[in-house]
Amino acid sequence: CREGLLIPADSGKSFKRIFGTSDYEGCHMNMLGFIKSGSTLAVTWDDAYVFPEISSSLESGTQKLTANFELRQSANAIRLMPLGKGDFNRIADGYRQYAKRHGFAVTLRQKIRRDPHVERMLGASNAKLWTCLARRMNEESTAEESVNIRWTFDEAAKIAEHLHNDLKVDRCFFMIGGWTEGGYDCRHPDNLPANPECGGNNALADAVKRIQALSYVGCLHDNVQDMYHDAKSWSEDFIEKRPDGSLITGGRWLGGRAYMVCAPKQVELAMRKQNLPDTAKLFAPWSYFIDTTYAVGPRECFDPKHPLDRNLDIAWKTRLSDYARDVFGIFGSECGREWALPHSDFFEGLVAVSGRYYHNLKPEDYGATVIPFFEMVYHDCQICFGKYGYSPQKAAEYVAHHVLCARPLHYHSFPDHLYWKADAPARATQDDALACYTRSDNGWAQGMHPWDIFIKNTHEILGPLHHITAHNRLTNLEFLTSNRSVRRATYGHGGQATQVTVNFGTDDAGVETKYGGTAVLPTWGFVVESPTFVAFHAKQWNEQKYDSCTLFTLRAPENDTLDRAGRIRVFHAFGSPSLRWNKKLHKVEREATVNIQ
Predict the structure, then answer these.
(1) CA nearest neighbour of 466 among 590, 375, 551, 567
(2) pLDDT for 110-121, tens place per residue?
(3) Strand segments (E) across 237-363
(4) What are phi and psi of 276, to 5 degrees?
(5) Which of 102, 128, 194, 230 is the most exposed place for a label (fewest CB within 10 A)?
(6) What's the angle, vertex CA 322, arms to CA 316 and CA 325, rounded to 5?
(7) What one-character DSSP code corresponds to residue 415?
């Protein structure tokens, strides 16, 4: 499943977990893996009416871990795949071969050949404005409760230009939410014209043009699954029905109570001239995001005019994905599903949610460890981000998980308007470990707004890390300590591989590294090592001891390696400016091209 839940047979926990029944915690990959006495087994299925269940019971102090599979309606088979001796790495490798044979493992190289703009997504941080226009309606969508203009379209473009020109963020996936008529999550699926409160059609077209002139990938946020009573095209004919004919409702969002549009009707609505075709013609973004399509699990509808089962729901959503891709070039949706990999280019929410790596999962309830299993199977197939806002002042563990997964970070908590021109809140101190990425003492972003400090510090790690690993899987995951707190992920193979070591423990950890000797990692500290890129957040590296945690990155020139290069680019985020490399001590307070011969 999405989280890669590793449940040991000696966890000492009683529980029952059913996969595939809830919206966000269901199966995002159609497989379960088992290891017993050193032998591995993968169980897979193709039908959306397979519901696996993992149960643990304690009987006389002995744990019994079992798996059951309930096959309903059209489901009539599961597939058992013995994979030989090994561990979870062997399961991931074996399942990848299965996924390739079944057409799921469409790689980023293939997607770049389909649309060259996808290449600009490699190593791109995700900046998203939630939301330009926030209009809150009552439950019935009949009366306004509040209206808040957080950014005009001109301000959205200026934020992108600020990231590019002032923060030197080289790659960015820039998404605009709340551009639609009525504002964010309002009056869907009728989007046009772009709301006049933020500037209207011409201003949005100009903003997208300016964003993409930076070589950033521009993206607009849409939703064709939720429909509101005040939509111009409102009709009960579009809505999913229960067996008794009643309408199926969704969440209570800014626009009021949403009603769930049946999947074939979503395609019908999206294809209307005034929807996706006119949006592409007016604004020409390189990418499009349709919210909730992949977030909810397979659905059913009992309207006799458009009956739907779970398998047909998936089929219609792949058709919607393919259509949006054909219109815009790059397409993605919320969370992520394995069946969506051949039909999309990015997922928003699969990596993390609201500052938590697991969304609603509580691993402690299962005595389990979460591993980045998706990266072990599909890291080279999809651009993946987290979703929703979070506090940079509490994000150190969140960043550490992104480092282990080699994924760019998402920035969904931009302050309103041209925030960097306003008074900035207090900055982090050296003792504030959770807020360490808002530190800038002696570093590149010293004196900047804390939000900008956080973006710059994290982008300089995660952007290059994803860029160099984007065409590789996580081929080997190791636990370096018995309590599984220190983890090492290897992306790729042989001399070109990238190794990422992260300390999730509460104590400092010494780890052996190629370039840094014995590195001492604080809680949530890390070392990244590849032939072309090195980064560390450490208390000691390459025999250099630091009084406080220090963050550096080192990059070789294009088409060169750190071992061969005569000069390397060094970025310093915070802490001591002293860096030892090739037996020489360098002082880099911000950024420098260092002569290492």
Answers:
(1) 375
(2) 999 999 999 999
(3) 249-253, 256-260, 287-290, 330-335, 346-353
(4) -65, -45
(5) 102
(6) 145
(7) P
Q: Radius of gyration of the chain from Cα atoms?
A: 24
Confirm if 120 and 171 have CB atoms less than 8 A apart: yes
Omega before 131 within 30 of 0, i.e. cis: yes
Tokens 């940079």 -> residue? 392
- Whether the pTM exceeds 0.85: the reply is yes
Report the C-alpha gap between 362 and 407 in whole angstroms.
22
Block residue for tokens 């009525």: 182
Tokens 């806002």, located at residue: 389
Neighbours of 512 (CB within 10 A): 11
Are the beta carbons of 379 and 472 closer than 8 angstroms?
yes
**Token output for 351:** 């990596």
499: which strand partners? Answer: 490, 529
Structure token digits, residue 408? 């760019």
Read off the pLDDT of residues 82-130 as tens digits, 9 standing for 90 and up. 999 999 999 999 999 999 999 999 999 999 999 999 999 999 999 999 9
Residue 550 near residue 537 (C-beta atoms within 8 A): yes
DSSP 8-state class, residue 116: G
Handedness of CA 451, 454, 457, 462 (dihedral sign): negative
User: Hey, what are 293's tokens?
Assistant: 């399509």
Query: What does the DSSP 8-state code read for residue 119?
Result: G
SS (H, E, C) 5-16: EECCCCCCCCEE
Report the alpha-carbon angle 104-109-114, nearest 5: 85
Name the residue with tokens 């091209």.
Answer: 593
- CA 358 to CA 351: how far, in whole Å? 8
CB contact at 8 A, 469 and 498: yes
Q: Residue 400 pairs with which residues in a beta bridge?
A: none
Q: Which residues pair with 374 in a beta bridge?
A: none
CA dist., res. 486 & res. 490, Å (int) = 14
- Is 499:530 a contact under the CB 8 Å cutoff? yes
**Which residue's structure tokens are 């390397």?**
568
d(CA 262, CA 272): 16
